[in-house]
Amino acid sequence: MSRADFYLIAKPRFLTEPLRLVCELARKANDAQLPTLVLARDQAQAEALDELLWSFDDDAYIPHQIAGEDMDEEEALVLIAVPGGEAPARPLVINLRDDPWLGACDRVLEVVPADPEAREPLRERWRQYKALGFDLNKYDM
Questions:
Q1: Which H/E stretch holds residue 20?
Q2: Which of 9, 76, 77, 78 has CA atoms 20 to 30 A from the CA of 65?
Q3: Distance, CA of 138 to CA of 112 (rounded, Å)
């Protein structure tokens, strides 16, 4: 059974920079040697995440890249995909897009913004995953 985890942004360090939470999730996946696909909203978000993964922690090295930009994608544990681009299936997906991830994976992570208006569509996404039989979890971050 697939699993969907919703990470609700609440801590001050993530309120102003929600991509920092994505970096923390990517670090945990990297530490567990779990190939991860990050679904960015657009090219600008993919590039911002790419830059932040290099600099968010001086002690962390997370092999990552934007899908389609290099031939050695399989060596990057974290692969960032932009809409319209192709990306290989990975066991863990961090979804930053507006639609639920319905592709193959063992686990999908949904980052939920602090803005109450932005949370409403994610409540619907929770219901969609539940209807599909996903095991659901919620974490306050």
A1: helix 18-31
A2: 9
A3: 10
